[in-house]
Task: inverse folding
């Protein structure tokens, strides 16, 4: 209640805090000193929050103003670490929820990393490469003062892929006069990026679900799968599911759902999303038998395994009941919360 009172209107952050605190009861009973030292209260309050203006110019010369944010939540274990999200839905509550969860996700790796998150309400969709570059350069012109390989290490998230990371890193290098490769992750392999970084989240989620299925003496072979989203996580979830013998029947983007009874063609999705930066509705130009439903609900499609891989809170109680009724036996969440 104290968190809700101090941070009105930040629904996603309140949900994340409630879920974590509800699970910590046994820990506080076993270690009462955590309560005495106000550890829970401390961890719910970010160490630092930065909100800044991002002014940029489109290809017609018109100036636009967006809001940039970086919440450096906790550095108890190491430098702040967490992605940047560029999406119209971004506001402080979203960034705080993501940053709060990042503390625990990073701690579970066993690596010396703290938790942070950042982003902007800028929408890269429909923007030219030059417009995205100008926005990223303006964004980094404000952000660079508070990041560094020993301080805060951003990465990508929704709306921030290899292109955006390249523009951001280039501007950081220009401003600092340093090639500080550790300052941002998700870079291209030819300038300091890590192998398998792109595939890691999607692959990891599928490996986890494969172990879940193994507990039932089953696997992905012959299973029908639906994956929400069509970004980095969704694409590489598809790739690994297919490698393990599953068949992806449907994917989605923010405009609608594509269903292909022959199985979603991954090469086509990669072409549309990673190369041409187009919408999933254009999938039908390559596969006429596919069905596209504008603003459709992907969880209406019968499946054996479901992967919410787009954004937070995708499956409602109603959706969950429908999935079970339609034969779904496992859900693996590649998205957050």
Result:
């Amino acid at each position: 209640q104290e968190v809700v009172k101090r941070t009105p209107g930040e629904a996603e952050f309140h949900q994340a805090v409630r879920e974590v605190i509800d699970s910590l009861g046994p820990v506080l009973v076993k270690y009462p000193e955590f309560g005495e030292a106000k550890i829970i209260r401390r961890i719910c309050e970010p160490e630092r929050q930065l909100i800044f203006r991002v002014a940029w110019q489109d290809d017609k010369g018109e100036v636009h103003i967006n809001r940039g944010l970086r919440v450096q939540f906790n550095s108890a274990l190491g430098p702040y670490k967490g992605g940047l999200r560029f999406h119209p839905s971004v506001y402080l509550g979203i960034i705080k929820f993501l940053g709060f969860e990042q503390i625990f996700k990073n701690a579970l790796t066993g690596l010396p990393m703290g938790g942070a998150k950042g982003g902007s309400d800028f929408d890269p969709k429909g923007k030219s490469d030059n417009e995205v570059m100008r926005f990223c350069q303006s964004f980094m012109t404000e952000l660079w003062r508070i990041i560094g390989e020993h301080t805060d290490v951003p990465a990508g998230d929704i709306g921030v892929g290899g292109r955006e990371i390249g523009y951001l890193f280039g501007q950081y290098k220009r401003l600092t006069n340093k090639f500080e490769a550790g300052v941002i992750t998700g870079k291209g392999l030819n300038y300091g990026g890590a192998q398998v970084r792109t595939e890691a989240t999607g692959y990891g989620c599928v490996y986890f679900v494969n172990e879940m299925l193994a507990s039932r003496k089953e696997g992905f072979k012959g299973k029908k799968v639906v994956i929400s989203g069509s970004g980095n996580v969704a694409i590489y979830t598809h790739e690994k599911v297919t490698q393990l013998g599953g068949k992806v029947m449907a994917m989605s983007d923010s405009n609608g759902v594509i269903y292909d009874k022959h199985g979603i063609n991954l090469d086509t999705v990669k072409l549309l999303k990673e190369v041409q930066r187009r919408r999933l509705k254009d999938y039908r130009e390559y596969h006429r038998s596919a069905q596209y439903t504008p603003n459709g609900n992907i969880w209406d499609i019968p499946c054996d395994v479901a992967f919410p891989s787009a954004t937070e809170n995708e499956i409602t109680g109603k959706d969950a009941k429908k999935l079970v009724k339609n034969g779904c036996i496992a859900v693996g969440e590649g998205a957050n919360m």
User: Anything to note?
Assistant: The chain has three domains: 1-45, 46-191, 200-331.
